[in-house]
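The protein record filed here.
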Amino acid sequence: MSAPNVFDRVAQRKIVAVLVIDREDDAVPLAEALLAGGVDAMELTLRTDAAMGALKKIRSSVPEMIAGIGTILTPDQVKAVRDADGAFGVSPGLNESVIETAQACGLPFAPGIVTPSDIERALGYDLRFLKFFPAEPSGGLSYLNAIAAPYQHLGVRFVPLGGINLENMGTYLANPSVAAIGGSWIAKRETICSADWQTITANAKAAVECAASSD
């Protein structure tokens, strides 16, 4: 799937579950629990050795899930995500060598930004779907509005992550600059480790209902 198509789908759904997974065997039931709650986009962060194997299992067994990888820090990781059939890649910051590798191998990619200079560097690579991280610690929606204003006419859209929760996600999603939100609370690491799939499904449903009310 091309970058515009995959990110358009993410924007239509409005929610990306951001996850840390410790066991590959949790991958498929986790994806199924999210789908049962209506969340069909997930970012597996490269913070554990299980992430890449989990991605492969999800892409193979749960193809309806838009499964990508986050915390991509090196060009080699980009290639590994592409080889594992990742739907997209995300980084916490903006690293030119990572972006160039992603574009060379055709991996839809969203770098992390937190300043106007970051946005302009991303635009230099024709990237307009950007992660705003860390959102709340950086000043939240009022700060995002300030830095996004000069670029709105260029079609730049943001996915805030960091401090987003069920209480504030609706306010973010009501903003025209926000394409979707990243939610780590939907499937917390400890909830995944305890295989509490019912709680994850319930959290996903609550997030989907909140997103629908923001229209």
About this structure: Strands lie at 15-19, 41-45, 66-70, 89-90, 109-110, 112-113, 129-132, 157-160, 181-183.
